[in-house]
Amino acid sequence: MKIENTKAQMRKGVLEYCILSILRDQDKYASEILKTLKDAKMLVVEGTIYPLLTRLKNAGLLNYRWEESTSGPPRKYYTLTDTGKLFLNELSSTWEELHNAVTIVTSQNTSNNE
């Protein structure tokens, strides 16, 4: 089994949550979202983020608007919808529960191996 495949699957599993969290307080365009993810060491490529943004929009979790840019073509800014905000709150609760459960399990596993 290749560790890189498992790592990639783990990252994919939390990517939606991360994107919605990035948009919680401020509208952003795709390049800003990608930069935030990369700065956080989430290994994401453009080919992954654009289809995901489209899927989140089609699911009613995001909207977008076009804004003119002083440094190039117009930019598509993404924003959370009300449904997206509710969804993010649910994901936050689920993430907290999952994080706690994994911490308990991995802590017990570590102490059992000592």
What does the model show?
With 114 residues, this protein is an alpha+beta fold. 65% of the residues lie in helices and 17% in strands. A 3-stranded antiparallel β-sheet has the order 1-3-2. This is PadR family transcriptional regulator. It comes from Sinomicrobium weinanense. InterPro entries: ArsR-like_HTH (IPR011991), Metal_resp_DNA-bind_regulator (IPR052509), Tscrpt_reg_PadR_N (IPR005149), WH-like_DNA-bd_sf (IPR036388), WH_DNA-bd_sf (IPR036390).
Characteristic key phrases:
single chain; 114 residues; three-stranded antiparallel β-sheet; 4 helices; 3 strands; 65% helix; globular; ArsR-like_HTH; Metal_resp_DNA-bind_regulator; Tscrpt_reg_PadR_N; PadR family transcriptional regulator
Quick summary of this structure?
By secondary structure, the chain is an alpha+beta fold. Helix content is 65%, strand content 17%.
Major β-sheet strand ordering = 1-3-2
The termini sit apart by 26 Å
Question: Which oligomerization state do the chains in this entry correspond to?
Answer: single chain
The secondary-structure class comes to alpha+beta
GO biological process, one term: regulation of DNA-templated transcription
Pfam family, one: PadR
Domain Transcription regulator PadR N-terminal: 19-89
Protein name: PadR family transcriptional regulator
Q: Secondary-structure blueprint of this entry?
A:
Blueprint: H1 3-22, E1 28-29, H2 30-39, H3 46-58, E2 62-69, E3 72-80, H4 82-112
Antiparallel strand pairs: 1-3, 2-3
